[in-house]
Amino acid sequence: MLLFKEIHLKRFVLAMFIVIMLTGLSYLSAMGSSSKMTSWLFYVFRFPTHTLFWGLFSQSSTLYRLGLVINIFFWSIILERLLMLVTHIIKGFKDT
Length: 96
Known about the structure:
It is a single chain. The protein has 96 residues and is mainly α. Helix content is 80%, strand content 0%. It is built from five helices and no strands. Helix 1 crosses helix 2 and helix 1 crosses helix 5. It is elongated. The two termini are 22 Å apart. The model has no long low-confidence stretch (mean pLDDT 84).
């Protein structure tokens, strides 16, 4: 199946860079409450660890940040797969 092929390293690094930037900006915004849009975005980037395991990751700031790192990897894999899918669809349209 197309979604379970190996991960392309360059797309993954690009996806990770995008997710790190968005997570960092939304984290700083949520802590400073400067913008509703980026503060809301932080709740998206806290999923899945902080949403599912809040009792564990809220115990200390170290665990909280570890949860953010896990989320960055999670969202980077999701974004890399979406980029792969879009690339595959665009190549399919060019072939026809």
